[in-house]
Write the structure tokens for this entry.
Amino acid sequence: MSGTKKKAQMSVYLDPEVMKALSAYAARREQSLSLIAEAAIASFLSPDADERREAAIAKRLDQIDRRIARLERDVGISVETIALFIRFWLTTTPPLPEPAAKAARAQAGARYDNFVAALGRRLSQGPKLRQEISDDAGAVQSSLGPKQVGSEGK
């Protein structure tokens, strides 16, 4: 007689959908239904199942954290870009005399439409501004020196 223990038989009632999924999974893996069910029950009863679940959740949270950090960076770039443009525009554009101002207002609609079309092309085709800006902007600032940093538009 050998020293191996005989497996115990058990009858289980499954919903038709669960049975169908179990059968399909066993067929794909070319394993018996009994083996798949035994592995699933063992996994469910395993003391480290909670740890695996927690590790999976922690991994997903880390991915979300990285995505939020990228979003914060992208929003920061957008805000700084708009602020720099406005400052540059306000400091370099002199007020126009009234006849020229009327002509400029007349062209504003067409220029705005051209701007929106160019923005649409840029967003659909790239490259994106965030791809052109280095992640280590601090290294760029330190290489510029104290006189050049923050002197835009002054």
User: Anything to note?
Assistant: The CA atoms of residues 80 and 120 lie 20 Å apart. The chain has six helices and no strands. Residues 148-154 have pLDDT under 50 and may be disordered.
